[in-house]
Amino acid sequence: MYKHILLPTDGSKLSEKAIKHGIALAKALNAKITAVTVSPPLSTIASESVIGTDPSKPPAQYLGMVRKAAAASKVVCDVMHVENDQPHQAIIAAAKKQRCDLIVMASHGRRGISALVLGSVTAKVLTHSTIPVLVYR
Questions:
Q1: Can you give the pTM of this predicted structure?
Q2: Residues 90-102: tens digit of each pLDDT
Q3: Which of 57, 59, 74, 93 is 20 to 30 A from 37 (CA-CA)?
């Protein structure tokens, strides 16, 4: 079945739940995981405010939490931090680069106008990925 699972994280509580689910799935399948977090390049941060980021938690902290949870479950784990203005593109590229055969990620389940205005990284990954995506809600 699946041998290498990509787990994108933005450090949110929902993302943490999806990570736990992904690690449990990897353990059950005897698969390895790669955790990835995507942040905007420094030039973007300097020129505009970034919505949805928590400056008190750097990407290394998100990835460290995943690494620790994977180790506790005895699941092999690699981590990646990618700078990109388009998180969905970075997630898909990371999955391809690492030869992952599944992406497990969270969705906040926004509907209606908020989904249209805010967009959804998960929806964009679902739309553009040729790799299967398991959405945790």
A1: 0.86
A2: 999 999 999 999 9
A3: 74
